[in-house]
Design a protein that fits this description.
Helices cover 43% and strands 20% of the residues. The chain has 220 residues and is an alpha/beta fold. It has a single domain, classed as Alpha-Beta Barrel (TIM Barrel), CATH 3.20.20. The strands form 3 sheets. Strands 7-6-5-4-1-12-11-10 form an 8-stranded parallel β-sheet. Strands 2-3 form a two-stranded antiparallel sheet. The protein has a two-stranded antiparallel sheet with strand order 8-9. The longest helix has 13 residues.
């Protein structure tokens, strides 16, 4: 199965102010998965945008770039209030996991030592796989790996993590070239995100044209 693109209406790990306008321009593109971050849009605007995505049959994601239990639980509550299909991000906490399960939100927490915003990933492969297995034993849907934000060998990390974890993996952040898309095709995570690279025109053309270029490239 080819990895599935999640279009993130975000830049520098924050939702762009004109996210609704961009979605309207791109709602008929080939991308099925759409999302954004927990900051800075007001909750009412987030609800309206996610509802609009649902009108067009999109699967929806909220990615929370926060590392404390309180922030993670706040993010889970936002995801539930917006009827999101998936909560991505946060460090794993039982309280967040329990809330997601009770509210029919699929949970994909971060693994590794993550700091900052935009995020940086540190840690060893073995540590991340052990953490992933623990999270999976608790019933999470999959794992959110900030592979291209890794301070070490990102290509090796992505390859070995996907191979070592028998569960859905999303490679999130800094997928910004066709060369990296090629790398992802070879290792076949379930999903990957692109946000900032579309805003920076890394794939050539309008926002909508870039989305379809990536979708077409991944389907070959």
């Amino acid at each position: 199965m080819n990895p599935e693109l999640i279009v993130m209406l975000t830049h520098n790990d924050r939702t762009v102010e004109n996210a609704r306008e961009i979605f309207e321009q791109c709602k008929n593109t080939k991308a099925k998965f759409w999302g954004f971050k927990e900051e800075p849009l007001p909750l009412d605007d987030m609800k309206k945008l996610y509802a609009r995505m649902k009108e067009f049959g999109k699967t929806t994601f909220l990615e929370v770039v926060a590392y404390s239990e309180r922030e993670g639980l706040d993010g889970a509550k936002i995801a539930a209030a917006c009827h999101c299909d998936f909560l991505m991000g946060t460090k794993f906490f039982d309280s967040v996991n329990d809330f997601c399960r009770d509210n029919a939100v699929k949970y994909i927490p971060f693994v590794g030592k993550i700091t900052g915003r935009p995020s940086i990933l540190e840690g060893t492969l073995d540590e991340m796989i052990d953490e992933a297995r623990y999270c999976l034993s608790k019933g999470v849907y999959g794992l959110d790996l900030l592979g291209y934000r890794y301070t070490g060998d990102a290509v090796a990390l992505n390859k070995n993590f996907v191979a070592g974890v028998k569960a859905p993996v999303c490679i999130a952040g800094s997928v910004n070239s066709f060369a990296r898309l090629d790398e992802l095709k070879k290792i076949s995570p379930q999903m990957f995100t692109i946000g900032g690279a579309f805003f920076e025109g890394k794939f050539g053309g309008t926002f909508a044209e870039q989305i379809d270029k990536v979708c077409d490239f991944m389907s070959k």
